[in-house]
Amino acid sequence: MPKAKTPRRTGYHHGNLREVLIDAAVQLVEEGGPGNVSVREAAKRAGVSPGAPFRHFANKTALMTAVAEQAMSRFRSEITNAVESVATDDPIERFAAVGIAYLRWAIRNPTHFQVISTRSLIDWDSSESLRHDNEAVRALVEGSMVEAQRRNMLRSYDIAETQIAARALVYGLARMCIDGHFAQWAVAGHTAEQTAQDVLKHFVALIGNEPETAKKADLTLEHPD
Amino acid sequence: MPKAKTPRRTGYHHGNLREVLIDAAVQLVEEGGPGNVSVREAAKRAGVSPGAPFRHFANKTALMTAVAEQAMSRFRSEITNAVESVATDDPIERFAAVGIAYLRWAIRNPTHFQVISTRSLIDWDSSESLRHDNEAVRALVEGSMVEAQRRNMLRSYDIAETQIAARALVYGLARMCIDGHFAQWAVAGHTAEQTAQDVLKHFVALIGNEPETAKKADLTLEHPD
DNA sequence: AAATTATGTAATCACTGTTTACAATCCTGG
DNA sequence: CCAGGATTGTAAACAGTGATTACATAATTT
């Protein structure tokens, strides 16, 4: 009998190392951002040798991509749930709901949002799931946009550009929070999340057809940066 | 005579290693983005031992911060030059000029824009110069915004929110390009730069008071992502 | 039961940021 | 002008990283 050297782990072949590694990586992301993830540390936390992860992931990027897929799925759920639970069928309100849910998730899960939005960390093109979830969100925005135009609720006729502007605005707000451009800002009375939402609503009012735009005069926000 | 071990370099103490290291790091950034920078490689290119850089920079972040300062200075110059060489004194046109110059520089210097906008790479707070240049750009935007409001050229009364929206939009556009969210997009007829400019102009039209907004119906842009 | 395949380990490689002890050069005050 | 301290370089080391390799063990198929 060869007397197993380290029989500490039962069912020696671990069974579901892949999932455990992803969970460990998720935890590392939450603890200190994407930069805090190391394959070795994930392996250590899974109670496995440093080379073991490479039986399940071609490289670190593949592991990060799996983390991103998990995060993206939650991200998409939050958004689709939010828009489904919106009372009205007003397309502009539905559009706003998407943006607000987007910002809410991004600001509350900054490290994970960083993972799913920074392409250098992951292998976006190789992941069906990432593209699929992303497309679902995009389609949600486009759908409400098209419907809003059909009802003549938009100021501009060019929904393509309006849509890109909307995406860029929301993405920009999320990243400005995450990249730390709002240092002074969050210190002020308003939370970053609240302010981001206000700005989004401001934008929504701008694209709308209503002659009376948001005239809530001054929130006297500290200037960002 | 102790016969210098490696007298290959004249004026042995190199004279201006600090600048040479920054230049090497800049080159590395250009070659492969911020992730391509290593202190050791910069040292090698400067013809110096791996420990030498730490006589001039406390750590890698300090080196990257120096790189960022140089980039930020160019970034600011491009923007201030652009707005100064704008013919009209129309504040909204001046505002648009800032945004266009911003996008132009970011898209043409993506790796450097990544350096100056990703706070995890640099020590933003410790750099007077970074804050100063950033504030100059911000003030430029705010100035034109305030003036536009004074002339009653804006739709909304809340310039604070409009200003944040503008910043977020431009930042979002720049980062979407850089983070690779426009893959299919750039392949289409329009360059990323042209499209980003169009979207910016679209936004500028939206915030303006003119009843007739941009009605250039369809550019039939491929959808991003 | 034997052969094959999947999945782990151990050792190793090249590379990274950073620190330490030491050496060479420069600068300045007597 | 030169003694001595401050600068600024080197060499060697350390711990950590992603990744590969040869090998061992467990699960699975034949």
From TrEMBL, chains A, B:
Q: Ion transport among the record's keywords?
A: no
Q: Does the keyword Repeat apply?
A: no
The record's annotation in Pfam families points to: TetR_C_33, TetR_N
Q: Which Gene3D superfamilies match?
A: Tetracycline Repressor, domain 2
Q: What is a GO molecular function of this protein?
A: transcription cis-regulatory region binding
Residues annotated to bind DNA: 38-57
Q: Which UniProt keywords apply?
A: DNA-binding, Transcription, Transcription regulation
List the InterPro entries hit by this protein, alphabetically: Homeodomain-like_sf, HTH-type_TetR-like_transc_reg, HTH_TetR, MT1864/Rv1816-like_C, Tet_transcr_reg_TetR-rel_C_sf
Q: Which residues form the HTH tetR-type domain?
A: 15-75
Q: Which PANTHER family match?
A: HTH-TYPE TRANSCRIPTIONAL REGULATOR RUTR, TRANSCRIPTIONAL REGULATORY PROTEIN
Protein name, per record = TetR/AcrR family transcriptional regulator
- Which species expresses this protein natively? Mesorhizobium waimense
